[in-house]
């Protein structure tokens, strides 16, 4: 259970890297060599599995060295007490690191990156006599439908349900720092209702991420915008689906971290016991690093997808300073909207348990 959140964060980061890897994208001429879209997705899954296996192997070697199981270096046994070097390393931990992580990451890449078949409308039957008499008019090209971000109202509703669940269940004193993950609701451990409320609030943030990003772009483009503001707003609206979900995950993790710091900070004295151990801090740092890297990777992928548009704008004489100003404006607007929202949800999540 402790490995579930870091495992999900690493798998999400592996998927983001595989999605933006230029060597696994379909290119013209590869179909003749037998590398179509399906095989390219399998190639991306295999590359992800190899990368995750190598990284997990290095992590296992570092863990064994710090435990003192290998020996021969100055760092051997430096964390023997912390990593329980006196006992044998559990097989379940080794299999989770070396087997479950690469398998989940590669399977997720194979499923998500597999090409989807687009549904085509059935064509009406053609009368040969009518076709010889007069040429049939060309069918009108339907306009491209605008994406509908239905996740925003659902995200707001799920956040409200999660906070209400925490307010109802989380009635109790401040957590005891001597107990591992002690939350109000149960005296011997974590309360399922409180954890469920946290998970619902986090899920709501993830679902609301694309919609919030889209409406940030709409806000920038409202009124009579200038060139920089219009460009920044249109880019945000176009990239809402691509960068909104990773930003929602990042906000959810940051909100959980702020709520945990607020909840445990009241009971954490400088001379008393520590509610968070080094391994908990290592797991939190891993999750935060992965979700931050995923958001950055999604932003770079969005920038790469706009290469043709950017080149066309530069050929029209648009200065590079205007493009940089639009990028800075997009970043500032997202920070101005998402940062107070993340902080407010974290405070509301911790408020029922700190009273």
UniProtKB/TrEMBL annotation:
User: Where exactly are the transmembrane stretches of this chain?
Assistant: 42-66, 87-113, 198-222, 243-267, 279-300, 321-346
> What's in the keyword line of the UniProt record?
Membrane, Transmembrane, Transmembrane helix
For region Disordered, the annotated ranges are 119-144
Can you say what this protein is called?
Answer: Integral membrane protein
Supply the source organism for this entry. Answer: Streptomyces blastmyceticus
């Amino acid at each position: 259970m402790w490995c579930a959140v870091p495992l999900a964060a690493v798998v999400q980061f592996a998927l983001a890297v595989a999605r933006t890897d230029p060597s696994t994208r379909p290119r013209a001429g590869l179909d003749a060599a037998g590398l179509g879209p399906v095989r390219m997705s399998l190639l991306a899954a295999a590359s992800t599995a190899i990368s995750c296996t190598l990284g997990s192997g290095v992590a296992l070697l570092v863990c064994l060295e710090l435990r003192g199981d290998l020996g021969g270096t100055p760092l051997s046994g430096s964390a023997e007490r912390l990593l329980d070097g006196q006992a044998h390393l559990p097989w379940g931990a080794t299999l989770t690191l070396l087997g479950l992580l690469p398998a989940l990451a590669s399977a997720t890449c194979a499923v998500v990156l597999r090409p989807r078949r687009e549904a085509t409308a059935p064509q009406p039957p053609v009368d040969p006599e009518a076709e010889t008499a007069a040429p049939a008019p060309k069918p009108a090209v339907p306009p491209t439908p605008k994406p509908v971000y239905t996740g925003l109202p659902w995200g707001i509703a799920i956040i409200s349900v999660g906070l209400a669940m925490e307010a109802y269940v989380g009635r109790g004193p401040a957590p005891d720092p001597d107990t591992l993950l002690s939350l109000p609701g149960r005296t011997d451990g974590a309360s399922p209702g409180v954890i469920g409320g946290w998970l619902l609030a986090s899920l709501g943030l993830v679902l609301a991420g694309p919609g919030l990003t889209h409406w940030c772009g709409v806000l920038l483009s409202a009124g009579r915008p200038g060139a920089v503001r219009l460009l920044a707003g249109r880019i945000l609206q176009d990239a809402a689906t691509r960068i909104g979900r990773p930003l929602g995950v990042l906000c959810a993790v940051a909100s959980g971290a702020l709520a945990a710091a607020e909840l445990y900070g009241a009971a954490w004295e400088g001379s008393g016991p520590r509610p968070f151990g080094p391994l908990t801090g290592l797991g939190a740092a891993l999750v935060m690093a992965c979700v931050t890297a995923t958001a950055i990777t999604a932003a770079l992928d969005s920038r790469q997808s706009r290469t043709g548009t950017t080149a066309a704008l530069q050929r029209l004489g648009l200065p590079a300073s205007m493009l940089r100003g639009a990028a800075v404006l997009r970043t500032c607007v997202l920070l101005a909207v998402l940062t107070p929202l993340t902080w407010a949800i974290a405070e509301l999540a911790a408020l029922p348990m700190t009273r």
